[in-house]
Amino acid sequence: ASVIEKFRPSSFEKGNILDVNGKKIGDHDGIINFTIGQRKGIRIAHKEPLYVVDINAKTNEVIVGKRENLITKKILIKELNLFCNLQNYNDNLFVKVRSTGRLISAKAKLKNTLAEVTFNENESGISPGQACVFYSKNKYGDKVLGGGWISRVFNNYLST
Fold it and tell me: What is the overall mean pLDDT for the chain?
């Protein structure tokens, strides 16, 4: 936090918490205190649990919504480092977007050092900057095929 405070002091400024419709529902003590998918520590009483859906650094706003507002079906990957041609695995391709996360069935379209990844099932709480690792499965276990960095998340509520 001290490094971020030095280079981005605006991350510690107070700002608004908005719902997904743009209505102000609270205040925050700095966007530094939030991550996409966060549920605890939002400090807003609501009839349903609220999750951080977006953090807009330009406007210093935190956007919150329901869990389903976090669902993502497609991401873009940059700086790919592949050990093989992923197209050979499209019928048996899985990705992980968290080190402790589950394997998610997916398809990938490759272009140079970029990939467009479409999930065959819902995943939530993904944000740019996270790693994405590609796997295949066989009778011997999971095989790492490569990976890269998430550069864009397609979700109606994200500003990135």
Answer: 92
